[in-house]
Each structure stands twice: as structure tokens, then as C-alpha cells.
Amino acid sequence: MNISSVIVWFKEGCQQNIRQELAQIQGVECHQEEAGKMIVTIQGENVSDEVKALRCIESLNGVISAEMVYSYSEEIQTQKNQIEGYAYESLNDTKKAEQLRYGGSVSIQLEEALKK
After folding, report:
1. Phi, psi values for residue 90, rounded to 5°
2. Is 66 exposed, middle or buried (0-12, 13-18, 19+ CB in 10 A)?
3. 2-74 — its CATH code?
4. pLDDT tens, position by position, 34-86
5. Cα separation of 15 and 84, whole Å?
6. Model pTM?
7. In the chain, where are the structural domains located?
């Protein structure tokens, strides 16, 4: 599941019509309105669904601009959590310092190779 926030700028006098049309787009919900702009969320199964909804919003009569401000993806969050879990496990490993291999310097790797 993905969710994104979008700021929609629109022409004066189009607010009610745009709000009604937004309600017809699957996964789109309007949360806040001010003169000339709205904050909208898009919820979709994947990025493709979100982009499709954003293109629909952009095409509405009276919309000046629709800009995605924030996007959250469960798939990306799951991958991030796996990486963070691995990093945590690595930091809490009980290996002796001599057993750790540092890979950030070519000169250290060359020294190790020359010792062999």
C-alpha cells in the first residue's frame, strides 16, 4: 500500500467543482482547503496507481498545478527495516576486533592482501 500527499492549486471559483471531481477518483481524498489550494491524499496499491491518480487530478478543469509533496511505500519501508535490522545485528555481533574486516579503505585491503 502506498500513500502520498499532494498540494493542488486551482483557479478562483473552481473549488467546489474540483472537490466533487476529486471524490470520483479512486483512492483520492481531500483533507484541507484554502483559497486557491487543497491538500489531498492519494492511496494506491503501487506507484503506478498513485501516478495515475495524480495525472487525473492534473487534468481536472480549473487545476493549475498538482504537486506530490510526500510519498510512503510499504515495500520501501519493509526493505529499509530489513537493512536497519541487519545493521543492528552487525553492531551487536560478538566477534573479536581482529575478526572484523573493514572495507572502506583500499590501502587497508592492499596491506591485508600483501600479508598473505
Report:
1. -65, -40
2. buried
3. 3.30.70.920
4. 989 999 999 998 888 999 999 999 999 999 999 999 988 877 666 666 666 65
5. 44
6. 0.65
7. 2-74
